[in-house]
Amino acid sequence: MTVTSPAPDAPGRRPRRRTLLWAGVVVVVLAVLALLVGPRLYAASQEGRAAAPLAPASRAPAATEVPAAAPAAGTSVADGAWAVTGGTAGYRVDEVLNGQDVTVTGRTDRVTGSFTTAGGALTAGEVAVDLASVTTDSGARDAQFRRIVGVDANPAATFVLSAPVPLGGLAEVGSSVAVTLPGSLTVNGQARDVQVAATAELTGEGAVTVTGAIPVTWADHGVQAPDLAIVEVEDAGTLEFQVRATRS
Question: How far apart are CA 126 and CA 26, in angstroms?
Answer without folding.
Answer: 59
